[in-house]
Design brief:
The protein is α/β, with parallel strands linked by helices. It has 10 helices and 10 strands. Strands 1-2-3-5-7-10 form a 6-stranded mixed β-sheet, with helices on both faces. A 4-stranded mixed β-sheet has the order 4-6-8-9. The chain binds ligand LHQ. Ligand LHQ binds next to helix 2 and strand 6.
């Protein structure tokens, strides 16, 4: 049977490729579980020092597989809250709580929950032909997979509401201009650039990078006072790491540091 998520570990980078290309990588139950297992592995395996998430074929991810619950088949209305609680939310929490960088290479259309999973990653690159679509409004749903939270925080209410209420596609270049993603790059350059970035992050001081991710995410809820305290605590921890000693030593010896992620 074809794997719905391909997982490959090389040079400290765990590449997870959504792999239902004939459905634009829409999520079925199997793909949900496989993606979650991939991020769980990233948590558990010290050999994983960065994750690269992308999609196979011409799309990144078209959100939930709408064929899974065909209303024409009759029966009671589905409990979509249960779907979120069981499948999407645990994966979103794993991405955000993973104290290792997660790079996302959006290789084509990202719609519905697919768009919002991309946005939840730490550094998002997209091919210039990629589009982000808050497709939920087209089918009577609300933004999920953290989208109502991240769009409002990143873009502010006016743009978040317009995107979510109209479901108008947002092109990769505009998404970069608005700060929703890091960069739009030529389609042909996307995977090389994303992989190079993921590799360089994987060769970085993983503990310090993980604490940096924690701090920046905490800023969304902390006061400045709380954030200053948290920076103090994280810096204390980073300062005790082997990679900090190596970074300073390499600087003083005028050579490239060799970080071990500890
Ligand atoms: C699909 C899908 C798809 C199945 C393309 N499902 N087959 C959470 C909780 C629980 C339930 C509900 O949802 C959620 C969260 C969500 O994600 S809701 C939002 C679900 N996603 C959408 O509404 C997007 C639906 N797809 C589209 O609007 C278009 O396919 C986009 C704009 C993504 C791409 O358009 P095109 O480039 O023109 O491609 P296409 O429409 O021709 O799609 C290619 C194939 O992929 C096609 O199959 P076929 O057999 O005809 O070649 C589509 O049926 C299939 N596909 N999205 N979500």
């Amino acid at each position: 049977m074809t794997e719905t998520v391909l997982a490959a570990l090389a040079d400290g980078v765990l590449t997870l490729t959504l792999n239902r290309p004939d459905k634009l990588n829409a999520f079925n139950e199997e793909m949900h579980l496989a993606l979650r297992a991939g991020f769980q592995r990233a948590h558990d395996d010290a050999g994983v020092r960065a994750v690269l998430l992308t999609g196979a074929g011409r799309g990144f991810c078209a959100g939930q597989d709408l064929g899974d619950r065909d209303p024409r088949n009759g029966g009671p209305a589905p409990d979509l809250g249960h779907t979120l609680e069981t499948f999407y939310n645990p994966t979103l929490r794993l991405i955000r709580s993973l104290e290792k960088p997660v790079v996302c290479a959006v290789n084509g259309v990202a719609a519905g929950a697919g768009a919002n999973i991309a946005i939840a990653c730490d550094i998002v690159l997209a091919g210039k032909s990629a589009r982000f679509i808050q497709a939920f409004a087209r089918i009577g749903l609300v933004p999920d997979a953290g989208g109502s939270w991240s769009l409002a925080r990143i873009l502010g209410e006016p743009r978040a509401k317009a995107l979510a209420l109209t479901a108008e596609p947002l092109g990769a270049e505009k998404a970069a201009e608005w700060g929703l993603i890091w960069k739009a790059v030529e389609d042909e350059a996307l995977m090389d650039e994303a992989l190079a970035l993921a590799r360089s992050l994987a060769a970085g001081p993983t503990l310090g990078l993980g604490l940096t991710k924690r701090l920046i995410q905490a800023a969304a809820v902390n006061s400045l006072d709380q954030q200053l305290d948290q920076e103090r605590d994280c810096q204390r921890e980073a300062g005790r790491s082997t990679d900090y000693a190596e970074g300073v030593t390499a600087f003083l010896e005028k050579r490239k540091p060799e970080f071990r992620g500890q």
